[in-house]
Amino acid sequence: TTQLAEYYPNSLIVANEIDKTRHKGLILNINRIGTTGTVVTQYDGRFFKQTPEMFDKVLLDAPCSWEWTAYKTDGAIKYWNIKNIKRIAKLQFGLLEAAIHSCKVGGDIVYSTCTLNTLENEKIIEKALKKYPDTIQIDPISSTNDFQRNWPHRDQTGWFFVAKLQKTSSVKNQRKPQETR
Fold first, then answer.
1. Is 114 annotated as catalytic?
2. Pairing of strands 55-61, 103-113
3. Alpha-carbon distance 111 to 96, whole Å?
4. Catalytic residue chosen out of the listed positions 5, 114, 116, 171
5. Which terminus of the chain is more solvent-facing, meaning fewer CB atoms within 10 Å of its CB: N or C?
């Protein structure tokens, strides 16, 4: 958030952080650098599905299963199970849907995680493309890759996945029409 505020000083940035501790830290950092164009909210990110086409760009750094911490501690592996991964993936998809709804037509949506498995990464993007085929499209990261996946041993960085989408049209009404009597 603070980097975006520095790169885009004349923009209004809405940063959402649901975790109370991280929320406090974010506000402290924003105040420390003197950013004036940033608003910090503390909503369940799925709330933004109710704010159609409000944002020019959306960066969704999705909560994930923390597999990246496995090199530091065995906690991530100790509690890893497919049921938990599927629960997190469901949340991630709900957050991505909110991003799709709240982004303006022509805007960009960046989806990122710091985890390894495809259920939280590629499968989320594939599901969104399948559900919203007339609304979003992949904006390839490079001429050879739709996504970017970093591996610590290869890229000298933490685990990281990122995909960029472009919103090409408004979300069509997803509800089925009610029958009239």
1. yes
2. parallel
3. 7
4. 114
5. C
